[in-house]
Design brief:
7-stranded antiparallel beta sheet; homodimer; globular; PSTPO5379-like; about 25% strand; alpha+beta; PSTPO5379-like fold
Chain lengths: ~260, ~260
């Protein structure tokens, strides 16, 4: 049913395949070099406080674009995109409960829906790999390990909750390079928020992540922690909004923007 | 005898006071915002291999300027400087032995002398402090702790020896900031070369530095290591050249260049 993944080399090709119902899978590794984004769709009545939440917590919630209410199109991330059809799979939430995981949301669209496109760590992981660094969970073919910390986000209205971090282990010299490389990408979480002492974040056992899969940290390696895009999703779930739509995990929006266009220099 | 330090607010003022014999002290804290530099003066016959050594080891030996043989002036770092008189104090070396510490070297000048101006960590320490970070040895009013590592420099001719590193302890989030801030200054040692595991550098006891003074590393802090400008001086001494002149420790050349002019962005 799904098209050959190797035929999806640009953001436009991925979106077109999704729109035609020919691709419903995970987007990791598709359209190499094109920035992918997390999607959150809320009613206008909730949008202002969520936008304030993102503005107050830019490391976990780096906003790439926020739409006008009712507009399923984008201005900056892609031309002629339709957020109702152009992702492989969505999640629909009511009162904080997952209701369905459709492959398009045209039937749910309303004039008061505002879409938030939030930067994704795929972009900086590509930059790490392009620089010759090894990213453990990618080498192992598993999901990145993620942890709830004891660090609270800055709250905004009903939106509050702990910072969620992702962890990638590196040897010290590679950790330094990783700080420099990811620091160039403030639009996709930027530099790490911590390295070295998980207990300072309230993480008691690296082998038991709250999301994703555990990866080994070898002797002589430092665990390096980045603010994670799961943070706004966890905050959203906790807020138990009457209605919300997000992308399905791993099924991101693929943009026309090149990863390198998100670098500061 | 020495002029009031507070009257020395620019590189030109410091150099003028040195030239007039009115200042012979350490330059740390003088002319805030102006880049200071290490000085090495060699005979032309030794200059090429030393230049190659610096070129092969840019982290410990970031070259700011290399003069023509016999020219005591500079083109880039300062106008109308005279390297024979414009530093507070010099060290004169013969066969690797310290012979004298004069306040000017006009009587020793020869037509075949080449001067190397090498970036100094004062520049990036100013940037760290301006960013709100605390630099331990500065807070304690002592010299930075420095350690010989087991990492060999890339040799060039008779010049070889271990990398010497300086150490500054930081909490993890500050260590990350320190990587980002000092990474902007590749002309003055740049980003750290290591953090977290001194034993990986062959350093067995942080409390016993090979040069400078020990500073405490508190629980929850990471020792962060930068390549150090003492490296070329140690290499020079070990080479036991027939003749060399350096600045006296802490008595640097103060340039007309602003620290920020050495940043890459």
């Amino acid at each position: 049913m799904n098209v050959d993944r190797s035929s999806l080399q640009t953001g436009a090709q991925v979106r077109q395949a999704c729109r035609a119902g020919k691709f419903t899978g995970q987007t990791s590794g598709l359209a190499p070099g094109f920035a992918q984004a997390n999607l959150v769709i809320l009613r206008e009545q909730d949008a202002f406080q969520f936008l304030r939440f993102c503005q107050k917590n830019p490391k976990p919630c780096p906003l790439l674009e926020v739409t006008e209410a009712g507009d399923p199109g984008l201005r900056k991330l892609a031309e002629s995109a339709d957020l109702r059809t152009d992702l492989p799979r969505y999640r629909v939430w009511k009162q904080g409960e997952l209701i369905e995981e459709p492959t398009e949301i045209s039937h749910l669209w309303q004039d008061d829906l505002v879409s938030f496109l939030i930067g994704c760590s795929f972009t900086f992981e590509s930059a790490l790999i392009d620089s010759g660094l090894s990213v453990r969970h990618i080498d192992l073919g598993v999901n990145v390990p993620m942890y709830r910390t004891t660090i609270p986000c800055e709250p905004a209205g009903i939106f509050s909750g702990p910072l969620v971090v992702s962890m990638r282990p590196f040897k010290p010299a590679d950790a330094i390079r990783a700080v420099q490389i990811t620091g160039r990408f403030p639009a996709v979480h930027g530099a790490p928020i911590h390295l070295g002492f998980p207990e300072q974040l309230g993480i008691t056992n690296l082998a038991q992540p709250d999301f994703g899969d555990a990866v080994p940290v070898e002797p002589g390696e430092l665990p390096v922690f980045w603010a994670c895009g799961v943070t706004p999703q966890a905050v959203l779930m906790q807020a138990k909004l009457e209605f919300a739509i997000t992308h399905s995990p791993g099924c991101m929006f693929v943009s026309d923007l090149k990863d390198e266009a998100l670098a500061i220099s």
